[in-house]
Design a protein that fits this description.
single chain, 367 residues, alpha+beta, Rossmann fold, OB fold (Dihydrolipoamide Acetyltransferase, E2P), 2 domains, 6-stranded mixed sheet, 5-stranded antiparallel sheet, 21 strands, 24% helix, 37% strand, globular, binds magnesium ion
């Protein structure tokens, strides 16, 4: 499949700050592609370079098969000629214009004939599920509807890619969740590839076909959401994406198919086909909350801990279990209702092995 956007070796400095450090990715047709990472990791700068609002120091950017930026020549196509639509976090819709006029505005600026404008706006508003609201002013719309008007304006010029920078962060939690699904449906309907910027892991995991996880200007991993979650490439990705428990363990035996571990000489933890096995005997076992199962305290091979906190979250419970100096977070269904203070057995059903000091290494956490 041909790439709609291709970014290769992108570098951008602001004085001494290396905001984007050799970033490369491609976005395929109809793909929802996200840049995800903590504040300051270079997401917005990357997006602005793609849009042409920022001039990169090195690299090549192609949009729709055309080179729009190349350091060597130098070649730098202005933003309005790159075939992009953009919506930012602080999206602004014009308050004095109707929904129709807001969406029609970019077409009017381009001197598109009136009948074509009407047809295009109708098409965009149908995709956005806003038929019948053409004559309303933004003040007569909900936050989510205003957001859709901003999207409509970006869609009006039939861009080859939509660039979105945290477009949902101004909405309250419930609306944000709703708009996540709507945006995904709008994308399916319009078939437009999206380059989406967010620092919200849940949002990126839920919406994206692929995610580039960034830290300090670099891409740590570029993969579909499930791979990012289940097979993180670096300790940083593991720590940044979703909950994680760490337990220092010792390797008892390591075969081709499985590694057997103990925690302080207790329990039997068997990991099947781990993707990485550190050299030494001392390792750090990293586990998602759903990798742990709670069983009766005297169960064979189980670790013995104590429930310190029980939190109900609708679909089930989250327990905090004390194990020596460590506290583990365990997610369970609603059938397992344990009292705080009770003894409990813990069985490890999956996890990743890391070098013993992995999550405390500077590159693992600090960005
Ligand atoms: N115009 C600028 N002048 C100087 N430094 C800048 C400028 N824009 C960004 N930076 C710096 O570049 C780095 C990357 O910033 P960027 O805005 O791309 O981060 P981000 O990942 O979008 O963060 P956030 O999630 O907070 O929006 C930061 O260290 C930031 O301070
Ligand atoms: Mg940003």
């Amino acid at each position: 499949m041909s790439a709609v956007v291709s970014v290769r070796g992108l570098v951008k400095r602001f004085g001494k700050v290396l905001a984007v450090d050799e970033v490369s990715f491609e976005i395929a047709e109809r793909e929802f592609f996200s840049l995800l990472g903590p504040s300051g990791c270079g997401k917005t700068t990357t997006l602005r370079c793609v849009a042409g609002l920022e001039t990169a120091d090195a690299g090549t950017i192609e949009i729709g098969g055309r080179v729009v930026y190349r350091t060597a020549e130098p070649l730098d196509v202005p933003p309005n000629e790159r075939g992009i639509g953009m919506v930012f976090q602080s999206y602004a819709v014009w308050p004095h214009m109707s929904v129709f006029d807001n969406v029609a505005y970019p077409l009017k600026v381009r001197r598109t004939p009136r009948t074509q404008i009407a047809a295009r706006v109708a098409h965009v508003l149908r995709i956005l599920g806003m038929e019948g609201l053409e004559q309303r002013r933004p003040s007569q719309l909900s936050g989510g509807q205003q957001q859709r008007v901003a999207l409509g304006r970006a869609l009006a010029l039939e861009p080859s890619v939509l660039l979105l920078d945290e477009p949902l962060s101004n909405l309250d939690a419930k609306l944000r969740e709703q708009m996540r699904a709507e945006l995904k449906l709008i994308q399916r309907e319009s078939g437009l590839p999206i380059l989406y910027v967010t620092h919200d892991q849940v949002e990126a995991l839920a919406m994206s076909d692929r995610i580039a996880v960034m830290c300090a200007g670099r891409v740590h991993q570029l993969a579909p959401p499930e791979a990012i979650y289940r097979r993180p490439a670096t300790a940083f990705v593991l720590d940044f994406i979703g909950g994680v428990n760490y337990l220092p363990c010792q390797i008892l035996s390591a075969g081709n198919d499985a590694v057997t571990l103990r925690w302080r000489g207790e329990g039997t933890i068997i990991l099947e086909r781990p993707s990485y096995v550190p050299d030494g005997r001392e390792v750090l076992l990293a586990m998602r909350p759903e990798d742990l199962r709670l069983v009766a305290p005297d169960s064979d091979g189980a670790l013995r801990g104590r429930v310190v906190l029980r939190s109900f979250y609708g679909a089930g419970f989250e327990y905090r279990i004390r194990l020596g100096e460590t506290e583990l977070r365990v997610a369970t269904g609603k059938d397992l209702d344990l009292r705080e203070g009770s003894a409990v057995g813990i069985v490890v059903a999956g996890g990743l092995l890391l070098d013993p000091d992995a999550p405390s290494r500077p590159e693992a956490r600090a960005c």
